[in-house]
Amino acid sequence: MGFRKDFLWGGATAANQCEGGYQEGGRGLANVDVIPTGSERRAIITGKRKMTSFEEGYYYPAQEGIDMYHQFKSDIALFGEMGFKTYRLSIAWSRIFPQGDELEPNEAGLQFYEDLFKECHKYGIEPLVTITHFDCPMHLIIKYGGWRNREMIVFYERLCRVLFNRYKGLVKYWLTFNEINMILHAPFLGAGIYFEEGENEEQVKYQAAHHELVASALATKIAHEVDPNNQVGCMLAAASYYPYSCNPADVWEGKNKDRGNYFFIDVQSRGAYPAYALKRLEREGIHLEMSEEDQALLKQHTVDFISFSYYASRVATADESLLAKTAGNLFPTVKNPYLEASEWGWQIDPLGLRITMNDLYDRYQKPLFIVENGLGAVDTPNEQGEIIDDYRIDYLAAHIGAMRDAVELDGVDLLGYTSWGCIDLVSAGTGEMKKRYGFIYVDRDNQGNGTLKRSKKKSFDWYKKVIATNGEDLSRS
């Protein structure tokens, strides 16, 4: 059996982590540009420390990224050499609408992505486009307060109409918001929100989330109207929570943690706020401004498929004395004693991917698409300049094997798989370059030094073989 014949193998990037060219082609300033490396990065990402422009003494890695703005043709040629069937990328909103609230788009930005999509098709690569991947024009944050303001729906709708009409026939697969649940964990990164002292932060985050959910439904509606062939997905930072023990209190805590993430996808896939979420909001005194028109839009325009990122499983406990935490995509959780961890403390759990896939498919009964998965590691060239990244091959082979089991043995409907950071790029969490995920090495360090020269790692040819055999041959040799 194995994967479907038209399985979409590929890789994934985000504009703000690879494009650079932040001042070129009429592009405006975005939230992702003004997040520096260093000790204050997390405070800025979470909206605790306000930074609205570049400040002295900081390094801002998104300004140049890996310069894909100028090098996309040669990069896509490398993706084509690997045999990619799809390439997941994102639109920099401020390339299309530099301020965000203009009535007319920026032609130079539109042309850039048109050229990029045509380059993909030259190699038989289907673009998978994230409309908003942690990207918001800075003007919309300063003037309107980001997604806390309902007017953002109007600006997002305008962006979507332009994209769907301009790229009709060039792009078929769309994602509305990247890791939409990240708004709860990184509100400035996810929604352009920073908080004022004494503000009810939960109220702000959930109202902003509602605005994004309405905007997502509106985008789905427009996409289907412009081109019935369009397929629109939501996107979740996923990983099932394991209870730390069989203590019922731990099991219940795990269920509640899962619900905290599923809430968004419940709305986008099922078309209504689930009862548990409404009760929780009520208990916490959070009142959402939500019209009948909003509810009708959510109900009538659910997504076509569920896409998600998976890096590590999570553990939940009701025992507050268990303080040993592990890292993981801005989701610190209790350490799982049965798992090993990456250099950044992310616990490695291939079976957890199969478990997560089954949980999502059981819950939604819609096709799944894994759009992020990978191992962040330090890659050190040997004396010959080669990078023998067997550790990455082992990680990916184990996860693809678990993914295959979910399809073959469990009957999960899976559209495709795009490994994260198929070419080395800037880490969203830390801003580092040394935390590498790619099959392609980029000569760049954490301070922005380096030639930006691209070179193939051992995993490049390995992934090429995986794609050529449709996931049947996962061996190292």
UniProtKB/TrEMBL annotation:
GO terms for cellular component: cytosol. The keyword Acetylation does not apply. The active site is at 372 (nucleophile). Pfam families: Glyco_hydro_1. Keywords: Glycosidase, Hydrolase. One of its GO terms (biological process) is carbohydrate catabolic process. Belongs to the glycosyl hydrolase 1 family. This is 6-phospho-beta-glucosidase.
